[in-house]
Amino acid sequence: MPGGISTILYAQSVNGTKEQTRRFGSLDHVAKDLFGLGRASPELWRVFRGGISPDLRERIMVGVSRANACAGCTRAHQRLALRAGVTDAELESIGLGDLARLDEPSRAAIVYAVERSGAAFPGPAGAPSTDPDVAAAMARHFSPEETGQVDAIARLITFANLSVGSVEALHERLRG
Hints:
globular, AhpD-like, single chain
């Protein structure tokens, strides 16, 4: 697999400051993401009814949560990932953004999901990656239906990450 999809660059702390947790920027943003999540509900139904394997689902959720700097969701999905059979070494790799220890389908799915989340899900659900290496890897390992399921997982966890980030920001603001 090309080196371009063996790593993820997460938001880094700058000068010792905390990573910036992603959150919703407006009510329009919430509505847009909620509408997108609603459109993805058939794929989500398939995910939780025997589609994408639970271990891959949790790898994706940990990777996207880490990319969105949502510590609470990352911790929760790390625990769920361990229960689903993901190893500590794999979780460490995902946490560091060094995906070389993972199998190629997992690397492709995580990089694709993080890319879709970071770009706010442009185009239709399951749209191909804008990176030719990622698009090729996804096509090699996943059917269009499975790609739609990976996209739906990314949408679900991104909505959760941004919701948690928004509530935490509101709480901090109210505390003064």
